[in-house]
Design goal:
This protein has nine helices and 14 strands. The chain has 312 residues and is of the alpha/beta class. The strands form three sheets. A six-stranded mixed β-sheet has the order 5-4-3-2-1-14. Strands 6-7-8-9-12-13 form a six-stranded mixed β-sheet, with helices on one face. Strands 10-11 form a two-stranded antiparallel sheet. Helix 5 links the parallel strand 7 and strand 8. The mean pLDDT is 96.
Length: 312
């Protein structure tokens, strides 16, 4: 019997610095209701979906920086989204900036959560592959200060049993690294949800600018295929505070084929009917890790070169 999860990729257009969280949540609610009208089980929103992409500015006032973070989830503004999701019986993935107290200190992460049909948080992920830089680099047209404003995620690439399958999460730059998909693939992941905010312009390597859309699709499609998993990648797109960001929100099958996609740089919903059992034709044949993967030989090669791989 097929295990169907109907997914909505809920792309957002730009969020300007002056836009209130209340106005953004109204946009999320509109997409959530549209997805419900199309019988979706779960909706995937982008990275940092509640605010503009604030790491593009160098700020020295910590209070100003912290105004972009959520101190609880759900919070006073986001609670309405959880309540409406529970009322409609539809779940969601949401990316946001998280400020929390852990280990006796204040910590800040680029975070995503998975919420089930009852409005309950069933999974949390904190971004591991932080791009950009730490100090002010005034030569850039815009900054990319994720390494300044966030700590490296400390929750690992775990999977969650939800929606009748095995689901995983990652965020933006994580999608460019094969180990992101492989660590979850080794846990049997059947759908990876990821949000991103990706500028068209790459200040350190502008020669890559015209390849932004191609590289975005390349890594998500190859990650899906090589691990026999669905991948749902969702953008915050368009011109945000003078910075052009790519769209290309896509729903990708375990074959690597794109089966659903957004075509604008605005708020838009793409929907696909995802059969999680399609993963089996890849996980049990070409990418049967237990039969064909040879990690002991990788270790031998690397150790000969004087490096040590982490344990399996």
């Amino acid at each position: 019997m097929a295990r169907i999860v109907k997914v909505g990729a809920a792309q957002l257009g730009p969020i300007q610095r002056s836009d209130s969280r209340e106005s953004v949540v109204r946009r999320l609610l509109a997409l959530l209701r549209e997805a419900h009208g199309m019988a979706c089980d779960v909706v995937v929103f982008p990275e940092l979906a509640l605010t503009t992409f604030f790491p593009r500015w160098y700020m020295e006032d910590q209070a100003e920086v912290d105004s972009f973070y959520e101190r609880e989830m759900p919070g006073p503004v986001t609670r309405l989204l959880f309540e409406e999701a529970a009322r409609l019986g539809i779940g969601f993935y949401l990316g946001y900036a998280e400020l929390t107290q852990e280990e006796g200190r204040t910590r800040r992460f680029n975070t995503s959560i998975l919420v089930d049909r009852t409005g309950k948080i069933v999974g949390k992920y904190r971004k591991i592959h932080l791009p950009g830089h730490v100090e002010h680099e005034p030569w850039r047209r815009f900054q990319h200060l994720e390494k300044r404003y966030f700590e490296t995620g400390n929750l690992g690439f775990n999977v969650t049993r939800a929606y009748g399958g095995i689901l995983g999460m990652c965020i933006c730059n994580d999608r460019r690294w094969p180990e992101t998909y492989r660590v979850m693939g080794l846990q049997g992941v059947e759908m990876i949800m990821l949000g991103y905010n990706t500028p068209v312009h790459n200040p350190p390597a502008p020669v890559h600018d015209n390849l932004s859309n191609f590289h975005n699709q390349l890594v998500m499609q190859s990650g899906a295929y090589q691990n026999g998993t669905w991948v749902v990648g969702v953008a915050k797109a368009g011109c945000e505070e003078g910075c052009d960001m790519i769209g290309n929100s896509s729903i990708i099958a375990p074959s690597g084929e794109i089966v659903g996609a957004c075509t604008t740089l605005e708020d838009e919903l793409a929907v696909a009917r995802c059969d999680l059992d399609l993963c089996n034709s890849f996980k049990n044949t070409l990418f049967n890790f237990a039969v064909h993967r040879q990690p002991e030989h990788y270790r031998m090669i690397v150790e000969r070169k004087g490096s040590i791989l982490p344990p399996e």
